[in-house]
Specification:
Layout lengths: L9 H9 L1 H7 L1 H11 L6 E5 L5 H10 L4 E6 L2 H13 L5 E5 L12 E7 L8 H11 E12 L6 H12 L9 H4 L7 H9 L3 E9 L2 E3 L2 H10 L1 H7 L4 H15 L3 E2 L2 E4 L2 E8 L1
Parallel strand pairs: 1-2, 1-4, 2-3, 4-5
Antiparallel strand pairs: 5-10, 6-10, 7-9, 8-9
Helix pairs in contact: 6-9, 7-12
Length: 274
């Protein structure tokens, strides 16, 4: 998932879903580690925080099988409507959705065998409250695993545009969502938050999350159309915006080869036991 503000309309949800293939490629290793860290398997009752259009929920539903279930939660109802439709189209009757912010979870205590969250926690306004609610919803001994973005310097796709705007002192306060996405990127805060919420055996693992494109030109085209980059670069005048894109292209170009381009990326997966 990503920040609710950018994707809280039907148009935003459709735009997010259009980049599904790119997310699947970039976050494949992250997804597998999330599932491994909670021991996701047949018959389990799983909770997802920040489901977006259901990328992870549908994969989790296949893992838990018809004897298990997945509750997909998100702050964006239009995103969840897409998730519910995709679950129906896939014949997955074990997926349900609820329009809930992570801070406002109101779920039966000890009712889930696992909880997962991919790229949501950095947008949560009251992280201790949300984590406490997640832990309360888990049965004793169940595990929670979440991913957040790692350091900007290890995420070239996002890092170059943010750096270009930051050099021009054009990032306002509060920061745009694409900047906020890196608010937990050193890992220390989210680890401390899990421990403070009562999770034990907390672990943090970096995971590669590269962005691959068939060509350098395609990478630039995707970047220029990426909704959060459009908003970010929109903070600049037209002339400055084009100069910024020239700088971004120069930062991306060393990663290009005749076979395409792979921009390095890194996520952090944190996990703990209730």
């Amino acid at each position: 998932m990503t920040a609710p503000g950018a994707w809280s309309t039907p148009e935003g949800a459709a735009s997010w879903q259009a980049s599904l293939a790119q997310r699947r490629q970039s976050l494949a290793a992250v997804t597998e580690l999330l599932f491994a860290q909670v021991g996701l398997g047949p018959g389990m009752r799983a909770l997802e925080i920040g489901s977006g259009t259901g990328d992870l929920a549908l994969l989790a539903a296949a893992r838990v099988g018809p004897a298990g279930s997945v509750l997909a939660t998100d702050a964006s109802l239009p995103m969840l409507e897409v998730a519910a439709r995709l679950a129906r189209e896939a014949g997955l009757s074990n997926v349900s959705t609820r329009d809930l912010r992570a801070e406002d979870l109101d779920l039966p205590p000890r009712s889930f065998d696992a909880a997962i969250s991919r790229n949501c926690l950095m947008f949560v306004t009251d992280l201790p409250r949300a984590l406490g609610a997640i832990r309360a919803a888990l049965r004793p001994g169940a595990r929670f695993a979440a991913s957040v973005w790692g350091p900007l310097e290890r995420n070239v796709f996002h890092g170059a545009p943010i750096a270009a705007v930051r050099r021009r002192r054009a990032i306002p306060s509060p920061a745009p969502e694409v900047v906020q996405a890196f608010s937990l990127s050193d890992g220390d805060r989210v680890v401390s938050a899990l421990r403070g919420a009562g999770f034990h055996g907390v672990e943090l693992r970096p995971v590669a999350a590269p962005r691959r494109f068939p060509s350098f030109d395609q990478a630039l085209k995707t970047g220029r159309e990426f909704p959060t980059f459009v908003t970010l670069l929109g903070l600049l005048s037209e002339g400055e915006r084009e100069r910024a894109w020239d700088e971004i292209a120069r930062e991306w170009s060393p990663f290009a080869t005749p076979d395409g381009i792979e921009l390095p990326g890194e996520q952090l997966v944190v996990s703990g036991q209730a």
